[in-house]
Specification:
By secondary structure, this protein is mainly α. The protein folds into 2 domains: 20-76, Homeodomain-like (Arc Repressor Mutant, subunit A); 81-197, Orthogonal Bundle (Tetracycline Repressor, domain 2), CATH 1.10.357.10. It has 9 helices and no strands. It has helices spanning 20-35, 45-52, 56-62, 66-78, 89-99, 108-121, 123-150, 159-176, 187-199. Helix 5 packs antiparallel against helix 7. The relative contact order is 0.12. Residues 1-20 are annotated as: Disordered. Residues 20-81 form the HTH tetR-type domain. It comes from Micromonospora siamensis.
């Protein structure tokens, strides 16, 4: 995938200042089309430009291609990841686990379930998804690494397995409503405490 760099990562070039209104219209048009049932494969720059009321050149001045635009658009569904305070591994993990599967844009309820089969079918779309979630995964990895350094967690901790154990139950519950009687308000705390029982030094 050659055009994955998002505008958040790319350096700005000199010239006329970008229109924030145009940026927002393009992102919103992309999400609207996905929410209305367009697949990633079928989504086109032409359709996005028409919905946003801009020319294709306006989009290409901001993003090198469709994949980079999709990356920025999908990231907006979740908003900014929470920032750990650094005071306690437990508290930071509860904060991060609580943000898993939480979206700030209601269109996510229609987009994310449709994204899963596309991610499974296409290596390119799988990479798009990985790029979308990696910033949040990196935060959790850093908290666990800090816990090892401070002695709050076991020195032989397998960080990737620990991250899967922390993330899996929340994703299962929020995406599939696997257990209707679970209280989602306290679920992040329950999951973290349950997993930490096996991660702390013995």
């Amino acid at each position: 995938m050659s055009d994955m760099t998002s505008t958040a990562d790319a350096p700005r070039s000199p010239g006329r200042p970008r229109s924030v209104r145009a940026d927002e219209a393009i992102i919103s048009a992309t999400l609207d089309l996905l929410a209305e049932g367009s697949t990633i494969e079928a989504l086109s720059i032409e359709a996005i430009a028409a919905r946003a009321g801009v020319g294709k050149a306006t989009i290409y001045r901001r993003w090198p291609g469709k994949d980079a635009l999709l990356l920025d658009a999908l990231r907006t569904l979740k908003g900014q990841p929470p920032e750990p305070t650094g005071h306690s591994v437990r508290d930071d993990l509860i904060l991060l686990v609580g943000a898993i599967g939480h979206n700030v844009d209601p269109r996510a309820a229609r987009i994310m379930p449709c994204l899963v089969p596309e991610v499974n079918r296409s290596p390119d779309h799988y990479q798009l998804y990985q790029n979308m979630i990696e910033p949040r995964r990196r935060l959790m990895r850093e908290v666990l690494q800090r816990g090892i350094r401070t002695g709050e967690l076991r020195a032989d901790l397998d960080i990737d397995v620990a991250m899967a154990m922390l993330s899996g139950p929340i994703l299962m519950q929020r995406m599939l409503r696997w257990h209707p009687e679970l209280d989602e308000k306290i679920l992040p705390e329950k999951v973290v405490d349950g997993v930490l029982d096996g991660l702390r030094p013995r």
